[in-house]
Amino acid sequence: AAVAGTLAGRGYTVLTYTARGFGASGGRIHLDDPAYEGADAQRLIDFAATRSEVSRVGQDPVIGFAGASYGGALALMVAGLDPRVDAVAPAFTWNSLRQSLFPQYLTTSDPASLADVTPAGADGVYKQRWASLLFAGGAGRDPGAPTPDAADPTSTPGSTTDALCGRFAADLCQGYLAAAQSGRPDADLLSLLDRSGPAPLLSRVTAPTLLIQGEDDTLFGLDQADANLRGLPAGTPAKLAWVSGGHDASISVADLVPQLTAWFGRYLRRDGSPTDTAFSLVLPETVLVGNGGDTPPDVVTVPAYPVTGTGLGLRSVPLTGEEQTVLFPPGGTPTALTNLPGTGGALAAAAGVAGYALGVLPGQSATFTSAALTGPLNLTGSGRVRVEVTSSASTARFFVSVWDLGPDDNGRPSSAVLPQLSVAPVALTGLTPGRRTPAEIALPAVAHRVPVGHRLQVVLASTDQAYASPTQAAVSQVRLAPDAALQLPVLDAAPVPTSRVRVPWVLLGVVGALALAALAGLLMAGRRRRASHARPELAGVPLVVADLVKTYGDGFKAVDGVSFTAEAGQVVGLLGPNGAGKTTTMRMLVGLIRPDAGAIYVEGQPVHAGADVLGAVGAFIEGPGFLPHLTGRQNLAAFWAATGRPEEEAHLDEALAIAGLGTALERKVRGYSQGMRQRLGIAQAMLGLPALLLLDEPTNGLDPPQIRAMRAVLAAYAAAGRTVVVSSHLLSEVEHTCSHVVVMNRGRVVLTGAMADLTASDNVTLVGLSPGEDLAAAVRCLEQADLLAEVEDAVLRVTGAVPRPEIVARLVRAGFDVESVDGRRQLEEVFMSLVGAPAGGPEVSDD
Fold it and tell me: What is the pLDDT of residues 514-530, one digit of tens each?
């Protein structure tokens, strides 16, 4: 609605709608089938043509069509179906669902194709996690959802298939279920995927086409935009842009408005702007502590795509590495973890070197590494590498990636980044067991700047959790082909400041141009948000969260009816496994994202973007952001100056004491370690001593003494009558730091309460002995009485339904000096009983 309002304010008549199979639309989901979703879009154009607000050229209405993800494919498709469409702007979308869900990456001979790969054949590798997320988003049906349209021939209300498949068409559902079991598509499913979406209709598109593709997207990669552009007829005006975001990060339609208005202004309003075919992309740089961590990405442009001539270079980067053995484990486990589709790509930001250890498993991967770069390298597209494989089987499936490794630090890379989390699945078939076979492999298309001193590493892994891994055990020998090197397309064009991008902002009264916008992404059911009003009865409550709901554009429901309250003097821990919805909830608490439903109140005042009440809230969410050329002290001073409040209200000395950075406060932030930035960020959140403090993973990057100090700081902060809400995946820290806990799982609150009440137990006894007592001897003493005992943090933990007086009496009779007795469970036991999943490990964002 916000985007529609913006476009309407610029003179467009805007029609938005809910796609077939979503919300209250009825019908079945057919994944953009021309006979269903395509026909629907043409009906909408029929309707628009009857409206007086829509201008005409003769009898022909002036129509533009924009959309993202599901709506992006539909925009391209309807341009091929209906000549009344005058311009389209598809974003974050696909060309071929076959290649998107069953990809196969092989080489091509055209070096100017930055993202071109060979279309998948029968040996494509199943992208099982993305497929299961998409299916889960449309499967099942809420009790209040409309019954599918009986006129839809795939509709069989009340059948077992209907109960299982929900709002998916039966043929699509059955094809998915079969592929989920076998890991391979059958002929019927491939035929269905081939006709779903824009690929079959591209040759008929004559409307000027603006293609926008996200660089952070393992669902619909950059190769899909390449295929869409190449499928257009030679005379069709077209422009391609690679932008930040995508299904692994975020799909912000609002960010696309300047490009939409520029394109539609040129081809719908006919505002006289010259034809624009320039190709632009964003080049992010590795985030390396102390070395440009705050460097913004560059926007690079060249005259056109495909890129030829000046600006494009095919760089050869020598690799080293001996022949290596790669095991394909029985059952496909353990499985390498490079990405968790649907979680917002936080693995890339949080994992670092730890993520490299999860993604490059010893014995299941072959690695070939370059020397340290003597100059920066702009990776812009799909590279090539030649290898030789000797396999024990006739087929070998590899998951190939290129990592950016920082300089070694005591034998380990100081940083490890998998650009855009991209992995290329490669199925080598027709191998003769025991015979060496050469293969040239196309790597995933990325846009990434590698700093000086870093190395590139090509990894061939036997498994990847995002894909269906082979379950039959096998082994391969992998080596570089003779004189092989990593071939990379590199753009040497200079970055272009964003201020030089021309955007027409002309506002007209009624310009009858119509943007049909399915702008919300693949699986989003739009809802109208009721405005929240002040609640005087809550004026004394620091934070009230009431029935929050948030569903993202890909259909992932990150938050589903979350409610809780934080009172004065409490330190509330927001706890949950990966994907529970914690980060999404925290972002909604400060107005960074808007809930689809529900409300948030601080002292009875509603929270939304820019709300005045947020001035009483301090927040540290998703890591600190500082000006790297300023010192720590200057950054805090600049932040406070931006609030416009008097300097004496900042309580700067208290904040600096919290930071505990000593003389480092006078150093420039670009030289700070992660822990130093973390402490400075928390101090910044505490400036002004806000009544409500929100901290997302505050102990990341802190060492044990700093973590202990942080506990004391938060306890003292709350003891003064303030409120602290801490989101964390570290159970032990929540247990030691928080007075109250809100446990989330799969977007819902499953438990709330005081820590002391939640951990109280009749079956656990904690016994503290005097200093110097032999704890091991005390354990043996209790075990002789068939009691289960262990030492935990210098305290005896005794488990079992044994009266506590008997436990104490036995220890005293044995001569042990007992100082304290308590009965409680560990928070981990409570957590595991609720969510049924192992805790620990790096938190993966749910956005």
Answer: 434 333 333 332 333 33
